[in-house]
């Protein structure tokens, strides 16, 4: 007689029932163990091991060879949800196919990144889709739908969004606090997460390393207050790597690790990513927290239930019914074509004076440090195939001939002990520049210690000429003649042993520091200097003096190649592992000086020069825009980057990518990297008052498009806006147009965006073809804003404009609407009091935590006084007193001045030290003249002080 299967094994039962049954069969230690990233098997119940976390940002990462699609910011440039959905689907299929061969491949994928590209100097700019919340949410929803699949029960993979919340800097990312006021939170940050979560294809989120308003994101009350209210699905919250230890470690927010992990679990973190595969410290800390009464068994069960629910939906307990293993596929012709299509659609034509497309039979020079490169980033898989720009153009039938010069300087290095030489005996050549790529792990190659280190020789004739590339900020790479980069292995010796720069700590970058009539050669990975030892070059605390002899300038080689060509294609940009990546923000928008010299040298030799920027972020290239006939930008385009670019340059494909973020004219237009108040700092296309170099949404084509008959109607009863516009291809070439619809409040009661994207669509039109497009948008999404005074989303009465066009600053039609809306009433401060964080404007203040669980307060304490402004406060028939809830851990005294603007009524309240930042007290003072009626209220904070609330009497 066959025993009945346990209830949790019954696929006919609801997931919730199966979870409850299994949860009841697990012991408490088994449940606690499941809270670590690497959950062990439970053999007695036949439950396999499970790990959260598989990187899959633009293809499967970190698991060897996979189809590599364009970077996320490149997918953002396509403005094409259906394409991005297909990329997500292909990635999910490859996750499944790779898992069938390697159980280390996980089905809980930590992708995509939906952090908004608010600031273009962010090191991880490559990981986001756009600076706009609407576009980001639309593309993230599409990508997660592809990853999740469309089965009603089972999921192909379980996507987790990164990184909650307001994470857009790498500098001190684990200890810096983002000051996030209510309007920026609700209008900008939350919508990027809310859209994909509500789409039903998101399994969870990952909190960011940083703090928000003084509180670690891993303790964010917003996880419960907002995130988990957007869907009935029990979302899983996976910690970022090492972040649980940061709470009591680098952040010092809790007194010990047990307290830190307990606080995270109570806040809603379900899976703890810490100490790699070693779960023991996490289990020990959570067990100690349970024993101390910091958490309850119910807290543990809530988290484990969410994790088990995800595992059931991934089919882990129903392998015979899971439909996605049969759907698994790897490196298929379809995936290869999709990779090329995505790379083509990501190309943005910034300027074109007619030099493009290239005419058949043209001779081209393809020059620059990225001309014959396919660069990967930290979240790329290893390449199965690759085509460089040079190879793509060389092999294109429209090109008569192609020559190449990389534009790096050729140098020799001399020390007092001799000239530097790369010894013979290297037993492997670097992989070729196109076609199939050999199965080679660059990390293993980089770490080889059997290769001979660099040595010195007495004569210059025996020295090795090295290619020196300057990536800006004084960061250099050096390559041997065989193409390998100089690198430092664990034994400290310098070898020509790296296919590309890479790794968490990059070992292939150097800098030259003037010293003793020459330079010290500093190895940036170790922080030490290169010295000459008897057995070869190695790094040490003290280095030798090097003299650099330039054998050939890169710009001379570029000029020579340019002079003999009909058109020059200069390919510049970044290496995603250098000067702008995870852990490292950029310092400037400018091109590296060496790259700047290259386009100038090419243009001086040949006016028909095209600048192609292949990069993970924008540059400020105003002079290039003024002087060159054509400029293009593309993110690093993955395995098909070169063939895709060649097809666009040769006119086989019309460019139609659009910028997913503003390209500023210079660093002077940028706010501070840690200034997240884009309303006050006038950042992104939403608020920027300056003229950018290229606006958000910009991108040209080889054809032209006309816009006619824009119409818009608002139905306030149903809460719906409908906009229609006719778009016509008025040129002679087929192409895609990205139709963009923006909304604007003409006379808002608070500062509103110049224009905000509310809808878009990418459409393909043949010459002469026209299409009538209809967009339907909730009125609140189109015209609403966060009413800080009353803590709600609202559409106020007034005049609004709906515009459609080709970019945020190329609007071809406008329609004006008048809405009855919902009038905003004054703040009833006499009755309800006033939260200090509910300000309308501020200067010299920042937001901080009221306590360690919830609540926001306002802090000041800089050299200049802080100011807060609250508009339209109703003081009733007269208000005689004001009370402040304040705290001040510093010794001495601070003051807060409360002023009813325009009445002459002003009270100065002295705030004594309370001994602790969380020790709140109330101070009271009379308001002279008992101001009455509706007035603006101003607070001036002098000295270190925290204000949480005001009350009036």
From TrEMBL:
Entry keyword Nucleotide-binding: no
PROSITE patterns noted in UniProt: CBM6
Gene3D superfamilies: 2.60.120.380, Galactose-binding domain-like, Glycoside hydrolase family 3 C-terminal domain, Glycoside hydrolase, family 3, N-terminal domain, Immunoglobulins
Pfam families in the cross-refs: CBM_6, Fn3-like, Glyco_hydro_3, Glyco_hydro_3_C
GO molecular function annotation: hydrolase activity
SUPFAM superfamilies named in the record: (Trans)glycosidases, Actin-crosslinking proteins, Beta-D-glucan exohydrolase, C-terminal domain, Galactose-binding domain-like
InterPro entries: Actin-crosslinking (IPR008999), BXL (IPR044993), CBM6 (IPR005084), Cellulose-bd_IV (IPR006584), Fn3-like (IPR026891), Galactose-bd-like_sf (IPR008979), GH (IPR017853), Glyco_hydro_3_C (IPR002772)
Keywords tagged on the record: Hydrolase, Signal
Domain named CBM6: residues: 832-953
Family statement drawn from the similarity comment of this UniProt entry: Belongs to the glycosyl hydrolase 3 family.
Name of the protein in question: Glycoside hydrolase family 3 C-terminal domain-containing protein
Organism this protein belongs to: Streptomyces johnsoniae
